[in-house]
Structures are given as structure tokens and as C-alpha cells.
Inverse folding.
């Protein structure tokens, strides 16, 4: 991600003609010659070859990157909202205003539709699971393309799911409480796996993506939409101590280790950011991968890193919850700040 602005209009060809920051990076190979692309936090080195696809409206060029994979954050790194019980209570209150206060700044309908485009929701009879579906905002985008009766919304927060149940287009969806790292679906169950704005709360993202692989059918596609890591020092501080903001190459690494092929990453963001990514984005990329073989993931993992049944000290719990809420406030203020800059700075100039 760029430290100041990445508009997508310089030397890279767009994946989508809708928005200038909708870039698609394909990570199916890491063995090609390099050409430079400099970034202050991620080190993408792109292949000098590009695959070109044609359709009736535009030419789509997929850039093939060679990524320098940074190590995942250690489990000991403190995050104010780390335990699932803390996230449960955080959303107990956030669910009240989630659709009206949080989404407008971070997850708009245009962003949702663009982020879901790589998921290829091309058949109304597809079986789709929306993991961490929350209030059903992302599911509303899914049911534009897939019959609601074929869609399952899963979340650990009953308060978020209660909001989803109130939405008329979702009345035929299956709505269940569950854990993204231990999905209650059989192996080779779904045609599509979608998860938006959930990975940041997973104690072990690799386990969650491994589960995505397991529940998909042969040829099925997973689409994980989530945050990206900030480079601006203050935003980086709040991100580091709050929840998981993965780097772009970490997403690719998790997908590939789980066994996915044709892994692609598409950048998204609010239009008023003008491509700026230095503050990080709560919804900053859409990552997809295809399951190449039936059965479970070839990746073997040990026990879960977090035991939700382990007792939590009440005062420590409250302290972390309050600090987490304060960190979250920063990421509510950032989109307001960026929107104001978009109104003031002349169009065509970086902000």
C-alpha cells in the first residue's frame, strides 16, 4: 500500500473500470522476473508479464506480483479487542448503530458491490456462506445475485444477527450463530465462501482461511474482504494495539498455505479517499482464491490459539474493552477527516 496515495492510474491497468483504486493482483506464481513497484510498508515486485482478458466493455489486465512475505504478527502482540468474548460485548453495543454510523464511513454499497465482483456470484442457485455476516449488509449484496434461500449468514454475535433478521431481502436466508475458525458446515458444502469485515477479529486468520477451503466444493471460490495495514504512525499505533490489520502479502500467504490457487487481491476504498491508504482501511481489499481439489485443506494446524472458555478477569476485560473502544473511535474519525479533505482539496491533487 502506498504511504501517501495510490490512485491506480499510473503504470498499472485497472481490474475494474468502476473505481480507480480497484486493482487486482494475481499471486498464482512467484517465479517471474521483477519490475519495480515501491511501497513503504509492502514490497510487491510485479512480473514483467501481464495476462489480458477481453470482454465487451473493457480490457482487463491482471498484474502478476512477486511478493516479499512478511512474518505474521505473534500471538503475544497485545490487541485491546482480541478475545472473542470482548468482541462479543463490543458488538453488543455497536450493533445498535452499526449500519448507520460505521458502514457509511468504511463500507458503502458501491464498495460492497465492487468487492464482491471477484467472487463471481454468477448463478442464483449457488450455495453461499457469509461468514461473520453481522447485520447482513454484505449479504444484501450477495442476494442481488443468489437466491436468499441458498445463503447462510453466520456470526458469533446474536445482536448483529438480530439486525440481519429484520431485513426483508434476507428473510429466506439461514441465519446461525457460529465460529469462523470452526464452521458448522460439512466438507465440500458451498459454492462460494464470503467473509467481509470479520478477519480482523480472528485470533488465528490462517485457521479461518483453512476452514474456508474445507467447506468449499471443488472449483468453489473464497472471497475475504478486510482491512489493510496503515503506514501513518498514529493510525499504525491504534491498529497495532486494537485488532488485526493484515498486510496485503499476508492475505496472499494465508490463502496459498491453505491450498487455494489463482489467488488475487483487489484494492477497494471509499471514493473520497482518492486512493489514499496510509491510514489503513477497515475495508481495504478483496482477496479471492479457488479450491483446486475436493476434501480438506492440505494445511495441518495444531490446537486453537484462543480458548474462549478460559476465564477472563473482569477488570482486565473491562479495561481492554474500553481501550478498544477508544482505538475504534480513531477509525471513526479518519473517514470524516478524509471526507473533509476531499471537499477542500481541488480534484486531481493528492490528499
Amino acid at each position: 500500500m502506498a504511504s501517501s496515495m495510490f490512485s491506480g492510474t499510473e503504470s498499472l491497468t485497472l481490474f475494474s473500470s468502476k473505481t480507480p483504486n480497484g486493482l487486482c493482483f494475481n499471486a498464482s506464481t512467484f517465479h517471474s522476473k521483477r519490475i519495480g513497484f515501491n511501497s513503504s510498508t509492502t514490497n510487491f515486485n510485479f512480473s514483467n508479464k501481464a495476462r489480458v482478458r477481453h470482454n465487451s466493455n473493457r480490457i482487463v489486465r491482471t498484474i502478476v506480483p512477486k511478493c516479499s512475505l512478511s512474518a505474521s504478527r505473534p500471538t503475544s502482540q497485545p490487541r485491546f479487542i482480541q478475545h472473542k468474548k470482548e468482541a462479543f460485548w463490543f458488538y453488543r453495543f455497536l450493533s445498535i448503530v452499526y449500519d448507520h454510523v460505521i458502514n457509511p464511513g468504511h463500507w458503502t454499497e458501491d464498495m460492497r458491490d465492487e468487492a464482491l465482483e471477484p467472487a463471481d456470484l454468477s448463478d442464483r442457485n449457488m450455495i453461499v456462506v457469509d461468514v461473520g455476516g453481522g447485520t447482513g449488509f454484505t449479504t444484501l449484496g450477495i442476494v442481488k445475485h443468489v437466491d436468499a434461500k441458498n445463503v447462510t449468514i453466520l456470526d458469533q454475535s446474536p445482536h448483529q444477527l438480530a439486525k440481519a433478521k429484520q431485513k426483508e431481502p434476507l428473510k429466506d436466508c439461514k441465519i446461525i450463530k457460529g465460529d469462523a475458525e470452526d464452521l458448522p458446515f460439512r466438507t465440500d458444502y458451498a459454492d462460494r465462501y464470503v467473509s467481509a469485515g470479520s478477519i480482523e477479529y480472528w485470533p488465528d486468520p490462517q485457521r479461518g482461511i483453512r476452514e474456508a477451503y474445507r467447506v468449499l466444493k471443488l472449483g468453489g471460490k473464497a472471497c475475504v474482504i478486510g482491512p489493510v495495514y496503515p503506514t501513518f504512525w498514529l493510525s499504525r499505533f491504534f491498529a497495532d494495539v486494537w485488532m488485526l490489520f493484515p498486510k496485503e502479502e499476508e492475505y496472499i500467504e494465508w490463502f496459498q498455505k491453505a491450498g487455494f490457487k489463482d489467488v488475487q487481491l483487489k484494492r477497494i476504498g471509499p471514493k473520497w479517499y482518492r486512493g489514499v491508504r496510509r491510514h489503513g482501511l477497515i475495508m481495504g481489499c478483496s482477496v479471492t482464491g479457488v479450491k483446486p481439489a475436493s476434501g480438506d485443506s492440505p494445511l495441518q494446524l495444531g490446537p486453537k490459539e484462543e480458548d474462549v472458555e478460559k476465564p477472563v478477569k473482569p477488570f482486565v476485560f473491562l479495561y481492554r474493552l474500553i481501550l478498544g473502544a477508544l482505538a475504534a473511535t480513531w477509525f471513526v474519525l479518519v473517514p470524516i477527516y478524509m471526507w473533509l479533505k476531499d471537499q477542500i482539496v481541488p480534484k486531481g491533487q493528492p490528499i
Notes: DSSP finds nine helices and eleven strands in the chain. The two ends are 15 Å apart (CA to CA). Residues 204 and 305 are 7 Å apart (CA to CA).
